[in-house]
């Protein structure tokens, strides 16, 4: 099966960027199935990042279906020949579920497997209804900005996992110095089958594939939840983008000092900082904490993971970002819907990191 994955079709056009929209960045994670206003801003920024023409023509939307709360549909067909050119074929979008899907998966235990149990099977269906409905809303938001987006579900594309083995995440997880911070990332989903040929063909056809965290089949335990962070790492391995951008929300984690880390960029700099100011990822995928020292932090960090989060929370994000950096691909982690996120999406950070840019860059250090 691994040989089959190696023979997959790859796009003829180079991939510029894979974008991860964090679930908490585009939804209100503690408000059941509610989309955040950030989604509209993100869609606008992605269009700006893809625009290659200097002309300021009117944006013509591609969502010609009726929207709840709107009496009229927007179907303007005249003027498409004069649309600003988009470099859309060089982007892939992957999003998390946020307040969609996690509740259904958690209540039914989908992430633990056991499709032979009626509750798990029902939860599998309910989870996919929820996450695919969010995927549709994201595709529509991008389409309204003139981005030719196409929703692609991992389950429907034949993605399978095998022998899922994820570190324990129970509420607030205390991580001592001798744990995974110094020993490398925890084991996550092992991809048994992931056909990226349709993703590649969509890119070559000028579309922007939009994938999402999904409920998928697992060859060992029957089923599980495949997180968007794991999907991004696999896509990066297969398609080799120039860079990857993680867009996140505020107040993800805190430590046991008086300081509140309102952005994961602060956390990552703290855990992975190299003497040159960039997080250090070694060739074997491990990393080390240089400063501040654990003596100054009571030798412990705490991650807050929502009770309904079935994907591993921040631990998985950091692990997958480090593994992507190990491939020689720059990873930018930045707050969503800000001027800093637009600069990251536009590729301004590839050669030099501006002094006034706020975020985190993870680079492979040879």
UniProtKB/TrEMBL annotation:
Its EC number is 2.7.4.26. It holds the Pfam family AA_kinase. This is Isopentenyl phosphate kinase. It is an enzyme of class 2 (transferase). One of its GO terms (cellular component) is cytosol. GO terms for molecular function: ATP binding; isopentenyl phosphate kinase activity; kinase activity. Keywords: ATP-binding, Isoprene biosynthesis, Kinase, Nucleotide-binding, Transferase. Belongs to the isopentenyl phosphate kinase family. It catalyses: isopentenyl phosphate + ATP = isopentenyl diphosphate + ADP. The keyword Kinase applies.
């Amino acid at each position: 099966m691994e040989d089959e994955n190696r023979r997959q079709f790859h796009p003829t056009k180079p991939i510029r960027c894979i974008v991860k929209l964090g679930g908490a960045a585009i939804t209100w994670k503690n408000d059941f199935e509610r989309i955040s206003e950030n989604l509209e801003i993100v869609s606008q920024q992605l269009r700006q990042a893809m625009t290659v023409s200097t002309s300021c023509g009117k944006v013509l939307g591609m969502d010609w279906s009726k929207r709840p709360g709107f009496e009229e549909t927007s179907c303007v067909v005249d003027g498409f020949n004069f649309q600003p050119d988009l470099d859309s074929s060089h982007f892939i979008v992957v999003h998390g579920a946020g307040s969609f899907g996690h509740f259904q998966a958690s209540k039914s235990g989908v992430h633990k497997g056991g499709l032979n149990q009626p509750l798990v099977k029902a939860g599998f269906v309910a989870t996919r209804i929820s996450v695919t409905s969010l995927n549709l809303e994201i595709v529509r938001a991008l389409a309204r900005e003139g981005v030719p987006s196409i929703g692609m579900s991992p389950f429907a594309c034949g993605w399978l996992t095998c022998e899922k083995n994820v570190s324990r995440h129970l509420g607030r997880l205390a991580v001592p110095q001798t744990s995974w911070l110094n020993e490398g990332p925890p084991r996550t989903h092992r991809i048994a089958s992931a056909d990226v040929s349709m993703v590649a063909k969509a890119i070559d056809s000028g579309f922007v594939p939009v994938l999402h965290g999904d409920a998928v089949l697992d060859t060992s335990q029957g089923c599980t939840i495949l997180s968007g962070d794991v999907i991004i790492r696999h896509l990066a391995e297969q398609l080799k983008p120039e860079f990857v951008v993680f867009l996140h929300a505020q107040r993800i984690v805190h430590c046991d000092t008086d300081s509140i880390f309102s952005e994961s960029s602060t956390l990552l700099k703290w855990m992975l900082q190299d003497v040159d100011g960039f997080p250090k990822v070694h060739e074997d995928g491990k990393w080390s904490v240089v400063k501040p020292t654990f003596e100054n932090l009571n030798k412990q960090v705490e991650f807050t993971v929502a009770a309904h989060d079935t994907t591993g929370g921040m631990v998985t994000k950091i692990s997958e970002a480090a593994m992507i950096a190990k491939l020689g691909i720059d990873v930018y982690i930045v707050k969503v819907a800000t001027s800093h996120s637009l600069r990251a999406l536009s590729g301004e950070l590839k050669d030099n990191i501006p002094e006034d840019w706020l975020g985190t860059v993870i680079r492979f250090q040879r």
